[in-house]
Amino acid sequence: MDLTTIVQALISGVLMAGIYALVAIGLTLIFGVVRIVNFAQGEFVMLGMYATYWLWKLWGIDPYASLLITMPLLFCFGVLVQRFLLQPILHAPDLAQIFMTVGLSVALMNAALFSFTADFRSVKTAYAERALHAGGVTVPVTRLFAFVGALALAGLLTLFLTRTDVGKALRAVAQDREVSMLLGINPRRMYLLAVGLGTALAGAAGGLIVPFFYVFPTVGVVFGLVAFVVVILGTLGSIQGALLASLIVGVAESLGILFAGADLGLVMVFALLVAALVFKPLGLMGQA
Amino acid sequence: MRRAAAAGLFLTLIVLPFLLPNPFYVHIVVMMAVFAVLGGAWNLIGGYAGQLSLGHAAFFGTGAYVSTLLVNATGISPWITLWLGGAAALLLSLPVGAICFRLQGPYFAIATIGLGEVLRLLVLHFREVTNGAQGLTVPFKGEAPWQLQFESKFPYYYIALAMAAAVVLVTRRMERARLGHYLVAIGQNQDAAEAIGIDSVRAKGQALALSAFVTGVAGVFYAQYTYVVHPDSVFGLGMSIQIALVAIVGGVGTVLGPILGAAIMESFVQSTQIAFAGQYPGLELIVYGGLLMAVILWQPRGVIPWLARVFRRAAARRPAARGAQA
């Protein structure tokens, strides 16, 4: 195996890592603030993909421009999920919390199957085939755009969380619910905001990959699973951790595909999960 | 009174297949018994110890594949692979328990989803051994009791029923033994349980091993009963969710919950399948997911505790009403 192939795999892994980071940041934000593990996060990615696909198919809207429509749409969807499905069970046992989002995931996946059939759909843009070439390495522009878009959104979120009052309030709730209430923050509003943002980020990740990824009802499953590994490796609740871990996971997956076979990328990702649980159970950012 | 009710239930279950109009209904009660076994197994770790597995398909599929591969390669009797399949699932569960049970939090649920998915991908990948996506078939031998094959569905029903009865007995025993008390203590408050000297990793590991063994045995039975083993059906997330739901709908941490859950879920699944008859792909699972959310919103602790409260209230009202008449 020559060096170019390996460099190519590394670059592919890093570019995909941006997307994984976006899905995982959404997941970790919801967990950090609301303390619920969202087993439907992958299905939020799927919703973002279908929304983008239909906007393109029906009205010819460019997938990247669609972000301006799909992100607010998914934000609202997330707010509704929090208000009507998660809020009532915030203090319920783990069992209710886990299976609420599992139920949501099953319902959404099959709603997509029912409405849009199991067909694989794809968006064809003028720039889909364009690529950058350098020293035998090829970088498709759509993958590059996805990476840059993901990083830009992650950067915007970080600015929002660190520079604005609302963002700081959100972090305060994540750190300590009771103390934040003493400070006059209404945690219920912050929960709505957190789930809304987490859902919008997953939807954005879906929109960003549509130019080079097939859309089908169970497409979200893999993204949900990868996001779990990323948030555990990067410490539950930590955004920087999710960014770092997604890089590791993205590269591990693409090296796994290169060395073990196209169908075993996810197995490599789970090998990382096992390693994380054995050697660093609290994740890269974890402090005992 | 209790004993009479139990004897009546037992007799009903024995004669049940003779009362059913055709083999299709016998098939449904066989599947109910299989899911009662699976839900009961899940309940040992998910209900009593509060460790929610979303990957019991991993143990189910391991039993089904190990047995079918052995039967096809060596011609060994499935009555023996029944135990070997269970043992393989038990072995698989040991590292899972050792790794996950040191941690508190959602790690076990996430790791078990991963386990099922990894096994599914590996089975799809190593197709020289596993036949990949086509799956494996058990060669049909006609009426061959030593090969765990019967022309009638009745023997399958009685075997599945015996397995379900065994799970009920094991659960009752465990509930009253030291392990059961340990698990309930851990499920309620792990730190407090450890403070009084309970080794929580060990207790949860034992419950998971037992649960995995039973699930693996059920996987072997399922392979023999249906004659086919498909990676997507036996290792799929759908199977894991279905197993968990049986216990949850019935009521976790109760001996009879999974039986009630299996009866409810399987009637529901079969009737929606008949009603929609494959014309509307996905519709039954939309209803399934929707009902799951509705039940959680309505009774976050399951149906059995709710039923128990209703009965208790009714029982409390009766003497009072009699008193008023006198």
How is this structure best described in words?
Chain A has eleven helices and two strands. With 288 residues, chain A is mainly alpha-helical. Chain A has one domain: ABC transporter involved in vitamin B12 uptake, BtuC, CATH 1.10.3470. Chain A has a two-stranded antiparallel ribbon with strand order 1-2. In chain A, helix 2 crosses helix 8 and helix 10 packs across helix 11. The mean pLDDT of chain A is 91. With 326 residues, chain B is mostly helical. Chain B has one domain: ABC transporter involved in vitamin B12 uptake, BtuC (Orthogonal Bundle), CATH 1.10.3470. Helix content of chain B is 77%, strand content 1%. Chain B is built from 15 helices and two strands. Chain B has a two-stranded antiparallel sheet with strand order 1-2. Chain B is globular. The relative contact order of chain B is 0.16. Chains A and B meet through helix 4, helix 9 and helix 11 of A and helix 5, helix 12 and helix 14 of B.
Question: What is the topology?
Answer:
The complex is a heterodimer of chains A (288) and B (326).
Chain A: H1 3-34, H2 41-59, H3 63-86, H4 94-116, E1 131-134, E2 137-140, H5 141-163, H6 165-175, H7 177-182, H8 187-209, H9 220-233, H10 239-260, H11 265-279
Antiparallel strand pairs in A: 1-2
Helix pairs in contact in A: 1-5, 1-6, 1-8, 1-9, 1-10, 2-3, 2-4, 2-8, 2-9, 3-8, 5-6, 5-8, 6-8, 9-10, 9-11, 10-11
Chain B: H1 2-19, H2 23-48, H3 57-74, H4 78-100, H5 107-125, H6 127-130, E1 136-137, H7 154-176, H8 178-188, H9 190-195, H10 200-226, E2 228-229, H11 231-234, H12 237-250, H13 257-276, H14 283-298, H15 303-325
Helix pairs in contact in B: 2-7, 2-10, 2-12, 2-13, 3-4, 3-5, 3-10, 4-10, 7-8, 7-10, 8-10, 12-13
